[in-house]
Write a structure and sequence with these properties.
357 residues; alpha/beta; nine-stranded mixed beta sheet; three-stranded antiparallel beta sheet; 12 helices; 37% helix; globular
Length: 357
Amino acid sequence: MSPTIAEVRARSVLVPLSRPLRTASGSIPAAPLVLVDVRTDTDVVGHAWLFGYAAEMLAPMVALVGEITPALLGQSVAPVHRMRDFEARFRLLGMQGLLGMVVAGIDMALWDALGKVLDQPVATLLGGAPVPLRAYDSYGMVHPAKDEAALRKSVDSGFSGIKIKVGYPDPADDVAVVRGVREIIGPDVELMVDFNQSLDPPEACRRIQRLEEFNLYWVEEPVAAEDLAGHAQVRRRTGARIQTGENWWFPRGLQAAISASACDFAMLDIMKIGGVTGWMGAVGQAEGASLPVSSHLFVEASAHTLAVTPTADWLEYLDLAGPVLVDPCRPVDGYVTAAGPGLGITWNEAAIAEFGA
């Protein structure tokens, strides 16, 4: 008999980042996380975490978990069925924003619980297996001179890709930083840049053209995420390979981008695409459109879903939750392999008490 859901709870933490993230849209010195627990009637507990982006979002997200989960109690630990229940329940509202994030967190915790009940990694439950995935080391805005040692360490540790954030007020700074980083990492390491939605299409075209000489693997979110026509315009005018997707809500967000010819790559954020269940609904579309799929954040969960993604490309390595995990997911020679059972997540309760928000 399938286990049932006995309790759902959420807690918030504010986790200091060893490498604070500076972007064209603002700085993130610490990671505001919501930790989701789903306890089954057999006392197996599934875990997942959510990234709130701003500390002000933690209390509303925790409260929302409490508001929407009573209807789950007594229901089976069947993530796909529970997602269908959420879709029906919130059809008129739509599941985007904080609601979509919370629903995805519950979905991930359900998959973690199911994997623990069956003593299997989620990747195995999805029909695959944990496999080494090539990862790139993800930086914020960098200063080539000041950050040279860190960048060299990334390359020396085996990373074959480095991503940096650009979009400085002065376009000349974009060029100087990209040139400096390329000189540090050399020609054989892939270099990606992320504008974090900071430009309009004409300015994006001008800046990208100035970066052509640096052989960029992709240019990420040069314009507003929702501006699919703008992304398509930049793609046509520059010939650059455009990456976007971390702000798509559920699989229909991917469908809209494909219809608009907005990108050359798809970057799925497992929290916004609808958890494990939403991810699996999206990757078939990506395969049909021949879009390489990379992950955004959520190293632990994404290592499972990317392992069974037909067009898997890169796993983003940006460790947000490691300080509150017993066994953080670490790269080995530039590759990350999913852990289990479940999603391989176990809380470090002492750290949670220290960082509680």
